[in-house]
Amino acid sequence: MKQDGEKVTLGIVDNDHLTLAALSSILRDLPWLRILWTTVSGDDAVDNCLNPGTRPQVVLVDMSMEVTSGAEVCRTLRRRSLPVGLVCMTSFALGSYARIAAEAGAQALISKTDLRGLTNAIRHASAGLAVQCPVDASVQFPDVQSATSANDADAMDSRHTHHADENRLSAREIEILRMYSEGLETEEIAHSLSLSKFTIGTYAKRAMAKLHARNRIHAIILCEKRGLL
User: Fold this and answer.
1) Three-state SS string across 7-23, please?
2) Which domains does the chain show, CATH number per domain?
3) pLDDT, tens digit, for every residue of 28-51?
4) Who wins on pLDDT, 151 or 178?
5) Does pTM surpass 0.70?
6) Rounded to an integer, what distance in angstroms lies between the CA atom of residue 8 and that of residue 13?
């Protein structure tokens, strides 16, 4: 943990290069913070944390990375019982990831656009403390000590296995349903995401199946009720 007068050391992992550069530029100006490294790879972030020479006090973790997800980064570090504060972030609705982040051992989940929330969460995590979930009072983020203990790590893995059923929507499925909810047509969504219309349709059908929705409009309504859009 941070000693009085020392700067908090931070690592940042986000597979969006522009977001990574923007966050680094903003956070680098904070006088109490020192960025040790940034990376677009979840695997590299884990390796950096395993190495005592590059291990930060806090890691800022993007939840929606496509190769190694933010949740998997958190779970891997917790299995190793590393005393690193984990602050998850997302550009999607917080309800999409709140419980996943908590069960993975993170101390907070904050919107990428909420700079005050991010800096507050980094401060808390550097002191080993968790931040209250802003969207769901039933979600409790663990403090670092609880999250890194072997028994609690095993319990979190067990809870994750129990809750992480196959019906959880992926970030891409949520994104596509959100675009439909904004009135975009399939062809427009395909062009925006550089995907084929067939692929967009496949994502939409998977989302409807997971939600047990009668049609696309029903799927959008269900997502809105769950705070996913």
Assistant:
1) CEEEEEECCCHHHHHHH
2) 8-163 (3.40.50.2300), 171-225 (1.10.10.10)
3) 999 999 999 999 999 899 999 999
4) 178
5) no
6) 16
